[in-house]
């Protein structure tokens, strides 16, 4: 199986006082492998309301493939691939915002609620190389080559 050109993938979402924490956790877990541990940190909003930050860092190749397969399921994955140059920064980090409600309902969609940040391997560590590596990885899991 081919290596995955990422150092890690971070997923993060917020659970506001008006949301059910169990449901928000389930939405985040949609992108994670089974039994993957979600970190939880409590915070407070501007008006004293409770905010729970839920996050996970995926670091193994098999687990990253799982996350990438979910990303490759996006209805508009081709648009996402076309936008890679805007989604990868000069530090070789890939950013994507995913829809929390869709994830809870079992589908992948670009939207608001879940933030994905992936550190792309690139040698030399240049944006152009990172964009190409990210493109190959997404296309690879889509085509089952990874």
TrEMBL record:
Record-linked InterPro entries: PAB1135-like, Ribosomal_uL5_dom_sf
Q: Which residues form the signal peptide?
A: none
What's the domain of life for this entry?
Archaea
Q: Which Pfam families match?
A: RNA_binding
Query: What NCBIfam families would the database entry show?
Result: PRK14555.1-1
According to UniProt, the name of this protein is Exosome subunit, RNA binding protein with dsRBD fold
Q: Which organism is it from?
A: Natranaeroarchaeum sulfidigenes
Q: What is the lineage of its organism?
A: Archaea, Methanobacteriati, Methanobacteriota, Stenosarchaea group, Halobacteria
